[in-house]
Amino acid sequence: MRIVSAVVAALLLLSGVASATPSRGVTAREIAKWSAAGNDYVIREITVAAGGSTGWHHHDGTLYAVVTKGVLTRTMSDCTTSFVHHRGDTVIEEPHHVHIGRNLGTEPMVLQVLYVNPAGTPLSRDEPNPGCSFE
């Protein structure tokens, strides 16, 4: 059994298993939370400091947001598709789309967010960098 465990551990180390990318400069404040009809609903205010990012991630449900301050740059896992959202813009993120949110500006960026997730699932799931050069 020890040999099998050692071989599995060695294969994982040598295979270059990618690890999740951590967020930088992100704080969140929960405003409300409830459950209904098999979904969890969470409203949060998320702040990303200048130069910060959410790290690569995806959501199991749909996310609805409004940029209330600053500029949000979202990049999808193909590393080329980016969306720039300014103050007052709305954002809808569909389930299971891997992406990163970045604040490339000089002031904090603030989002008001409603998460609509299947009951019992996390708000987001970390993902490894898909190979983009900026993270």
Describe this structure in words.
It is built from one helix and ten strands, in the order H-E-E-E-E-E-E-E-E-E-E. It is mostly beta strands and 135 residues long. The protein has one domain (21-124): Jelly Rolls, CATH 2.60.120. Strand 1 and strand 2 (39-53) form a beta hairpin. It is globular, with a radius of gyration of 17 Å. The model is unreliable at 1-17 (pLDDT under 50). Residues 1-20 form the signal peptide. Pfam families: Cupin_2 (PF07883). InterPro entries: Cupin_2 (IPR013096), RmlC-like_jellyroll (IPR014710), RmlC_Cupin_sf (IPR011051).
Can you tag this structure with a few keywords?
1 helix, mainly beta, disordered N terminus, 135 residues, three-stranded antiparallel sheet, globular
Topology:
Blueprint: H1 2-14, E1 24-36, E2 39-53, E3 57-58, E4 62-69, E5 71-76, E6 82-86, E7 90-93, E8 99-102, E9 109-118, E10 125-126
Antiparallel strand pairs: 1-2, 2-9, 3-10, 4-7, 4-9, 5-6, 5-8
SSE sequence, one letter per element: HEEEEEEEEEE
Helix content: under 10%
- Total of helices: 1
Give the amount of beta strand, in percent: over 45%
CATH level 1 name? Mainly Beta
Terminal-residue CA separation: 39 Å
CATH-defined topology: Jelly Rolls
How would a crystallographer describe the biggest sheet? 5 strands, antiparallel
Return the average pLDDT rounded to an integer.
88
Which strand order do you get reading across the main beta sheet? Answer: 1-2-9-4-7
Care to count the β-strands? 10
Structural class: mainly beta
